[in-house]
Q: What sequence folds into this?
């Protein structure tokens, strides 16, 4: 056995693991390519390398690049299918790098979540080993629930505190520079995703950025009417270019790095000498704000795009002679603002993107439109073109990017992942990756080459807002913004059937203790009335509707009150009208009204004996209610922001609440006192569940994580990272199987592993 890293991972040592962890290069050099494949498809080797203090995630990613070595490609043992397998594994490492750099114990989670779909023997064998990893407690995905390797997202880069408006990439593809509404530029290592340094100096939003071909300087344009030239080696500002009388919206730089061309809301373009900082001349001719500019590779021409009144054909592009400053001709055709323009490397075509959702391809020799590209459902904000001129990549206000074939004008595929408008896009010189900047404050790195097979992950088509598990642990029920409730086999993650609501999105869902009925809440947009709908899980039919709340129903919990009133079943709903209402589910009758919260009620839980309810509210408090008489018993105060979730232990002695203040609090329900606070989330806590034995709590957060807490040690024992805000969670009676839903529509089925390590 060998031990690597501070987590003391024990690694089995087959023959190829007995040598250095620098193994792959040795194998290539020794012409032992078979062992190279064996090593890089072995989970133990992968884990050992990323946990070793001298290596890490990036070193492992680099190992996979050796397969592109010319010696390897010509090797007698070279096998394209095995290379495809290695590419899939490397893509997962790329996609998960930021997560693994924060916590290298998450390798098994990421491999399983992204590769379970692929029925490749070497991958499935690797995953079988990963499933057995128990060095520390962790949440094992039971289904392929994370974005798999394909044409798509490689990495998300975070650091700006406001929207990203501009992106440029160095010619060697190693660094990207972003400009933001937070008034800064950031320089990033594109290989690792690390921030190298921040460029500060602009007094307003940075709208544009370009980089010289040698990668030594960046030029930025700002709403403060200036451009700045930066040294990318030191991060120092070299000088400021002043002359525009309004916001600088765009900037481009000639291939020789000697001149910059800027476009402004003052309707002009200016050409600058980057050696002296002098303005060479001004290009006048646009009647409205200049939003886009590109320059041909020979530095002789610039193409600019302008904004005009919607529906006006004054939304033009102009082609300029950069030696004389003369306008050569005008490109007319867009019916709305031209927001972006790119030019092919041979200087023969320009591609423009418009507010009218289209792109146009232009012949720069004749000034004629070649064809129009349609497909975006909203404004095209950004466009880039690959160096070979074969593909264009466009970014849209609808949060997506699209990749287009410029020979046919056809869409090749769509890149989804941003949660807000895509404002900027750049592509590496080799055409393999695109970098996008968004109003969601992130940059994303996309793979433009891999994964011909596209597929859809199981889940909803909109945010999953609620999940529940039947008492026997066999079924999970999810409700979502796509107006459906889905019933899942909790053991396999298979969808069994779907209930469709004709009204609004499903915000909340609960299941009766006998597992026979589900209740969800919704609101009719037509009548503005709120409904609690009861579904029969056996017959799959709509049973009946409970109508009464005057506002949106925000949570529902079901109770079994056999100990109090025989076999009756009740439900209690809470609402944005600040009240709670217990109902008789068998008759649909309203029993009584609970009032006391001063603001909207967001969550409710019931003690197992059905005698008490605990509610959480926007008023930052929880209230405990006596359900036998309808009285408030006491109020729990301590959260500094809205209470979003509450769960109660099976012995009815404790409640656990989650809040917008990023914490969970554990309460003594006998005394009404706070016992302690759990801190660890970096954003709002949306949901809370408690295991049947009351020893652990599970929380879901807007920080994209699901955390498992040990309530005796008051610490996080396991964490799972999803791909968007996790909105809801529930746990099966076994205390190990967890189901959760996120804003992207994914439903996660997870199992808590490695608990024996805590014993």
A:
């Amino acid at each position: 056995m060998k031990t690597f890293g501070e987590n003391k991972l024990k690694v089995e040592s087959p023959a190829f693991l007995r040598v250095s962890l620098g193994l792959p290069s040795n194998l290539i050099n020794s012409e032992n390519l078979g062992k190279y494949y064996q090593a890089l498809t072995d989970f133990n080797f992968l884990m050992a390398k990323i946990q070793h203090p001298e290596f890490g995630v990036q070193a492992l990613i680099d190992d996979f690049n050796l397969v592109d070595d010319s010696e390897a490609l010509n090797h007698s043992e070279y096998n394209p299918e095995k290379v495809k397998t290695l590419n899939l594994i490397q893509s997962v490492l790329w996609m998960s790098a930021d997560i693994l750099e924060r916590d290298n114990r998450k390798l098994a989670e990421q491999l399983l979540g992204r590769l379970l779909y692929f029925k490749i023997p070497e991958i499935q064998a690797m995953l079988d080993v990963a499933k057995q990893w128990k060095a520390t407690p962790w949440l094992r995905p039971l289904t392929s629930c994370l974005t798999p390797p394909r044409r798509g997202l490689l990495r998300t880069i975070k650091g700006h505190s406001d929207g990203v408006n501009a992106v440029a990439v160095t010619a060697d593809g190693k660094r990207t520079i972003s400009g933001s509404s937070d008034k800064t530029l950031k320089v990033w290592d594109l290989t690792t995703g690390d921030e190298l340094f921040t460029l500060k100096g602009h007094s307003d939003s940075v709208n544009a950025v370009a980089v010289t071909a040698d990668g030594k300087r960046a030029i930025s344009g700002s709403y403060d009417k200036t451009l700045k030239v930066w040294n990318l080696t030191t991060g120092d500002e070299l000088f400021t270019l002043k002359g525009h009388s309004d916001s600088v919206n765009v900037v481009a730089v000639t291939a020789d790095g000697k001149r910059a061309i800027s476009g402004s809301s003052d309707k002009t373009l200016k050409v600058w000498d980057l050696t002296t900082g002098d303005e060479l001349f001004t290009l006048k001719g646009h009647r409205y704000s200049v939003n886009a500019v590109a320059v041909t590779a020979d530095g002789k021409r610039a193409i600019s795009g302008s904004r005009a009144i919607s529906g006006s054909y004054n939304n033009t592009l102009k082609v300029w002679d950069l030696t004389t400053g003369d306008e050569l001709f005008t490109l007319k055709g867009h019916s709305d603002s031209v927001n972006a323009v790119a030019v092919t490397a041979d200087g023969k075509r320009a591609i423009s993107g418009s507010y009218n959702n289209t792109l146009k391809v232009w012949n720069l020799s004749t000034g004629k439109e070649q064809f129009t590209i349609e497909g975006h459902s909203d404004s095209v904000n950004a466009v880039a073109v690959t160096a070979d001129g074969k593909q264009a990549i466009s970014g849209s206000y609808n949060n997506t990017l699209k990749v287009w074939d410029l020979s046919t004008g056809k869409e090749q595929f769509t890149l989804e992942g941003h949660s807000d408008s895509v404002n900027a896009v750049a592509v590496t010189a080799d055409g393999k990756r695109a970098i996008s900047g968004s109003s969601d404050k992130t940059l994303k790195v996309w793979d433009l080459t891999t994964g011909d097979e596209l597929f859809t992950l199981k889940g909803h088509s909109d945010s999953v807002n609620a999940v529940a598990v039947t008492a026997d642990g066999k079924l999970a029920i999810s409700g979502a913004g796509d107006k459906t409730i889905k019933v899942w086999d909790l053991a396999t993650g298979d969808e069994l059937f779907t209930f469709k609501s004709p009204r609004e999105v499903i915000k909340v869902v609960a299941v009766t203790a006998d597992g026979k009925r589900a209740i969800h809440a919704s609101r009719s947009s037509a009548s503005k009335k709120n409904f609690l709908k009861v579904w029969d899980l056996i017959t799959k039919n709509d049973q009946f509707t409970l109508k009464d709340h005057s506002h949106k129903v925000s949570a529902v919990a079901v109770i079994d009150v056999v100990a109090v009133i025989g076999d009756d079943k009740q439900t209690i709903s809470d609402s944005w009208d600040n009240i709670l209402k217990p109902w008789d589910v068998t008759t649909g009758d309203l029993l009584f009204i609970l009032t006391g919260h001063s603001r909207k009620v967001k969550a409710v839980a019931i003690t197992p004996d059905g005698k008490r309810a605990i509610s959480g509210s926007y008023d930052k408090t929880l209230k405990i209610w006596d359900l036998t008489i309808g009285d408030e018993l006491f109020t729990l105060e301590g959260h500094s922001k809205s209470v979003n979730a509450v769960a109660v232990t099976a012995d009815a002695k404790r409640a656990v609440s989650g809040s917008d203040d990023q914490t969970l609090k554990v309460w003594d329900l006998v005394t009404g006192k706070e016992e302690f606070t759990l801190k660890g989330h970096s954003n709002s806590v949306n949901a809370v569940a408690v295991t049947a034995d009351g020893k652990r709590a599970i929380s879901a957060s807007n920080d994209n994580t699901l955390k498992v807490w040990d309530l005796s040690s008051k610490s996080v024992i396991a964490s799972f990272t999803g791909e968007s805000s996790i909105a809801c969670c529930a746990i099966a009676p076994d205390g190990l199987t967890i189901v959760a839903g996120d804003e992207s529509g994914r439903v996660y089925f997870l199992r808590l592993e490695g608990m024996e390590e805590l014993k």
About this structure: The longest helix spans residues 80-102.
